[in-house]
Write a structure and sequence with these properties.
The chain is mainly β. It has one helix at about 55-65, and strands at about 5-10, 15-20, 25-40, 45-55, 70-75, 80-85, 90. It has one helix and seven strands. The N and C termini lie close together (about 10 Å).
C-alpha cells in the first residue's frame, strides 16, 4: 500500500525551528491548502495541515520561508491506529 502526500499551499505562520537533545533540527509549520472546488456559496475552502520537517529540510524551511510564502513538498502521512467499538485496532483510510 502506498503512503505518499504531495501538498502545495501557503504557510500560515513563521516556521518554528527547534533542536532535540541530540542536536537534530526539527521544524513545525502549518500549511493552508486550498481545495480545488467551491462550496455552495461560491467560496473556496482551505485545509490546514500541520507538518513536521526534520534535519536539513527543517533548517532549510526555517531559513528561507516565512508566513504567507508558497511552499510545496511531499512526504508520508502518518496512519494513526484507532480503536473500534470492540477495542480492535482499525486504521483511518
Amino acid at each position: 500500500m502506498f503512503n505518499k502526500a504531495i501538498l502545495i499551499g501557503r504557510l500560515t505562520s513563521e516556521p518554528e525551528l527547534k533542536t532535540t537533545q541530540s542536536g537534530t533540527y526539527v521544524c513545525s509549520l502549518t500549511l493552508a491548502v486550498d481545495r480545488r472546488f467551491k462550496d455552495q456559496s461560491g467560496e473556496r475552502k482551505a485545509d490546514f495541515i500541520n507538518i513536521v520537517a526534520w534535519r536539513q529540510a527543517a533548517e532549510f524551511v526555517s531559513r528561507y520561508f516565512g508566513k504567507g510564502d508558497p511552499l510545496g513538498g511531499g512526504g508520508e502521512h502518518p496512519d494513526p491506529a484507532v480503536r473500534g467499538p470492540a477495542g480492535e485496532q482499525a486504521h483511518c483510510r
